[in-house]
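#dry-run=false #mode=assembly
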Amino acid sequence: MARTWQCVDERLQIKLPEIFDFEVNLDYLTRDTNECMYEVRDNHVTRLIELDNHRLLIQISAEDNKYLNVSFLAGTYPDETLLPKVVDYVWEWFDLDYDLAAFYEMSRKDPLLSQAIEKEYGLRLMGINELLETLCWAILGQQINLTFAYTLKRRFVETFGESMEYEGKKYMLFPSAETIAGLTPEDMADVKMTRRKSEYIINVARLIRDNQLTKEALLELDSLDAIERELTKIRGIGPWTANYVSMRCLRHPSSFPVADVGLMNAVKFGLDMDRKPTQEELLELSKKWSGFESYATFYLWRLLY
DNA sequence: GACCAGGGGTGCC
DNA sequence: GGCACCCATGGT
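#status=ok
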């Protein structure tokens, strides 16, 4: 979709696609109060990003769900040449390319998805633009409850990430591949993730630092199977993590983390079952969602909130 | 104090 | 290739 935007008084105004609800998306962003990568307050979201070695503190709000407005805080208004990249960043983060109408049309035939859509109308699959951050988040979150996962991420980011202060608040950048690649599991002991996870994360950071693993190369692959094969070669990345990453970062439409406990619980809740569905049952269900599995998963997760 | 958590590796057969 | 077992800590 064409990206229509303009710059007015040092503020970017980005034209939104037809189906979009900013408040619903902000609700998603506040799913855990311990989130450390951005701050949601007074109907806007503020975060620190880095583009071409420039740090920008951006604040995003919406205008009638017709435009997103992006302003730059702390004197970080960039050179004009960087503005299109800010638009790209925001566009990707909010997944504004996705054809929500097509997903909704498919979902209306499915009672389970229909209830999720009614609850979350206008939600887009809020992503994680950086491959390293997505992989670290997925790995550290394996097999622990989400609340604890957010605590681990916060400790990790606050210990090893850089930040910018503005009006008494600290805005964090995720630690760089170089930084993480230089760590040892001992360095990460205070973060209190398992030693194994520390090893996985350091290894992934080294692959990314050395350009052996890039988002661009993964995006070149022609199928979800190929992405899964490539990612699961890496220690600590199994089918769940590969699908999670392809969903949140690579934006593949058909990612489906079948082993996901949250997804199982959501389906159990949505179908009023007295037990969690098995992976086989989930796969059977997902046949109806072919081509839309990523959004189906994302919307179903929201049933639990 | 048990049971579970947005899994994955390893070793055994 | 399927299965049991381990990781290891915190939330409920």
